[in-house]
Specification:
Elements lengths: L1 H5 L5 E5 L3 H12 L4 E5 L2 H8 L6 E4 L8 H9 L9 E5 L4 H9 L4 E4 L4 H31 L4 H21 L5 H17 L4 H10 L12 H4 L7 H7 L2 H8 L6 H12 L20 H16 L10 H10 L11 H9 L1 H11 L6
Parallel strand pairs: 1-2, 1-3, 3-4, 4-5
Helix pairs in contact: 3-4, 6-7, 8-9, 8-14, 8-17, 9-13, 12-13, 13-14, 14-15
Length: 360
């Protein structure tokens, strides 16, 4: 099921705009990408049409006479049957208030008219990936229930493959390389072994850790890829990625997905309660997220960023264990921090083995 959803030949795009010229132009551009296009000239007709089609992405104008795009987006996102359909707002409005309102109503993207052909095609392509990922998760619970008691090994392998697919989807929505996700898996596995967790837990952690930033596929490009500092409103949206990831992973009770959800939701929480999104502290934070937190910080310190040079292993260890004014040892579970210190040489070996040429 998962593979079929990801490889579906044609995606369906619903174009909602009260101007016929816009509908015709967008249809031409998207059909050139081999998408199937449907269109509606009003918000009400769009809501009616959605009952008969299953769009992968909706292009939605804001300024329409009978029902504006804000209302349409809100109604779609509040309906469980349509809440997972990505919405790209396409509008002549360019004020920040409209942008924040649209995103608050659930829209995933915001494009200002006049529209650049290539930009529209790229945004649609990214949103299709988001929709396919959601479709995979929606169908996973049913798939597992059907296969309970039979082909257990095959189901587990399929689940691991699905997690791998979702990890790849997340990479499209971040500036990280695949090397980061790969290193994280090995770091967390090593730390679990040092903490003397059993084989099954270590194995789950190895695979589930790749989902830590899955929620970033729901963060708009102009925020995720912004080179300068985020402003207060943008930072509020960026901080939603743990909750987005948790929501995406809430549709399956499989142990691997359940651990992935704990990691996605809580890996920015801190032992002293200074993290986000909920400000959890100490043992209210799941162990998997506490492990993930220190591994993510270590790899961020070792990696090159637009705003910093990469730190050496010794400098990174010292920052985590002793602090540097920004990172504080109190951010980490003392037990996990002690295990991290114990297996520091293994972290260095993992980084060197899986680093890109420009990272060493």
């Amino acid at each position: 099921m998962s593979e079929n959803l990801m490889n579906k030949e044609k995606a369906t795009i619903l174009i909602v705009d009260d101007e016929e010229k816009n509908r015709r132009i967008f249809t031409k551009w998207l059909e050139a990408e081999d998408y199937e296009c449907c269109s509606a000239s009003s918000g009400k007709s769009a809501l009616s049409l959605i009952q008969t089609i299953d769009p992968d992405v909706i292009l939605l104008d804001l300024m329409m006479p009978d029902m504006d795009g804000f209302q349409v987006a809100s109604q779609l996102k509040n309906d469980p049957e349509t809440s997972e359909i990505p919405i790209i707002i396409v509008t002549a409005l360019d004020d920040k208030r409209s942008l924040i309102r649209a995103l608050s109503n659930g829209a995933e993207e915001f494009l200002n008219k006049p529209i650049d052909t290539n930009e529209l095609q790229i945004r649609v392509r990214n949103m299709i990936r988001l929709k396919r990922a959601n479709d995979i998760l929606k169908n996973h619970k049913e798939e597992l229930n059907i296969k309970v008691g039979e082909r257990t090994k095959e189901v587990q392998e399929s689940l691991v493959n699905t997690v791998g697919i979702l990890g790849k989807v997340a990479e499209y929505r971040d500036d990280e390389t695949g090397a980061h996700v790969q290193r994280i898996s090995y770091y967390t596995h090593a730390l679990c072994q040092t903490l003397e967790k059993d084989h099954d837990y270590c194995n789950l952690m190895f695979h589930a850790s790749s989902l830590h930033d899955i929620g970033k596929i729901g963060i708009p490009d102009h925020i995720l890829f912004k080179e300068g500092p985020l402003d207060e409103d943008e930072w509020k949206i960026m901080r939603k990625h743990p909750e987005i990831g948790g929501h995406m992973l809430s549709l399956s009770d499989a142990p691997l997905i359940r651990m992935g959800r704990e990691i996605a939701e809580c890996h920015h929480e801190r032992w002293d309660g200074s993290g986000y999104p909920k400000g959890l502290s100490q043992h209210d934070i799941p162990l998997a997220a506490r492990i993930m937190c220190i591994c993510d910080v270590y790899d961020a310190l070792r990696s090159k960023r637009p705003y910093k040079r990469p730190f050496t292993h010794q400098v990174s260890m010292n920052i985590i264990l002793n602090g540097d004014g920004r990172t504080d040892p109190k951010h980490f579970d003392p037990m996990v921090r002690a295990a991290f210190k114990q297996c520091g040489d293994e972290f260095e070996r993992i980084f060197q083995e899986h680093a890109l040429e420009n990272e060493v």
